[in-house]
Amino acid sequence: QVADRYAPKQIQRMNNCLKKIAEECKRLGFMEESEPETDNPAARSKSAQQRQVGEGEVRALIAASLMDSTCQGPRDALMIGLAFAGGLRTVDLVNLNLDNMHFDAKSGRVSVKFKAPGAKRARHIPLPNDQLIALEDWLAARGRDAGPLFCPTARSAEVNVKRMTAAQM
């Protein structure tokens, strides 16, 4: 379940993480340099707060995640790709299991079979090549045991096969 309110410490951690990702993407040339943003929320305009993320920015985030040499990079790239391409929310990503991944032998495609709560039928979200590579790398680190698709990792790059919380995601 997604918490309605995050603790201030969690919000600060998330903001710091996003700032570091944006700085790295700018350093690698995936994003253009823009005006420095102020930390004062009253100074920012409402339109800047509700800006949609473009496809190029998502590709830059995925590319930056794939450059990570730890096992967290492919996991994060797969999460970002599924969230953007499939329109999955955080709670949907948390609830994905390894059983939801389906390989179609006829077409040679891998898709995620996802059924939203209250929906009559499940959706099949095809995975493009960059997400397939991220999936293979993540499963090599995670293992093929049944359970949640996305798992937390320890600092020693050890994967614990248990369900992540929305805050960890």
Write the layout of secondary structure elements.
Layout: H1 8-28, H2 46-49, H3 55-66, H4 72-86, H5 90-94, E1 101-104, E2 109-114, E3 123-126, H6 129-142
Antiparallel strand pairs: 1-2, 2-3
Helix pairs in contact: 3-4, 4-6
- Helicity range of the residues? 40-55%
Global structural class: mainly alpha
Task: Name the poorly predicted regions.
Answer: none
- Supply the number of helical segments: 6
Q: What is the residue-mean pLDDT, rounded to a whole number?
A: 80
Shape: globular
| Residues in β-strands, percent | 5-15%
* Spatial ordering of strands, largest sheet: 1-2-3
Cα radius of gyration in angstroms: 17 Å
Largest sheet: 3 strands, antiparallel
Helix-strand pattern, N to C?
HHHHHEEEH
Count of DSSP strands:
3
Distance between the termini: 12 Å
Q: Could you describe the 3D structure shown?
A:
The protein is mostly helical. The chain has six helices and three strands, in the order αααααβββα. It has helices at 8-28, 46-49, 55-66, 72-86, 90-94, 129-142; strands spanning 101-104, 109-114, 123-126. The longest helix is centred in the N-terminal third of the chain and has 21 residues, at 8-28. The N and C termini lie close together (12 Å).
Task: Briefly summarize what is shown.
It is built from six helices and three strands. It has 169 residues and is mostly helical.
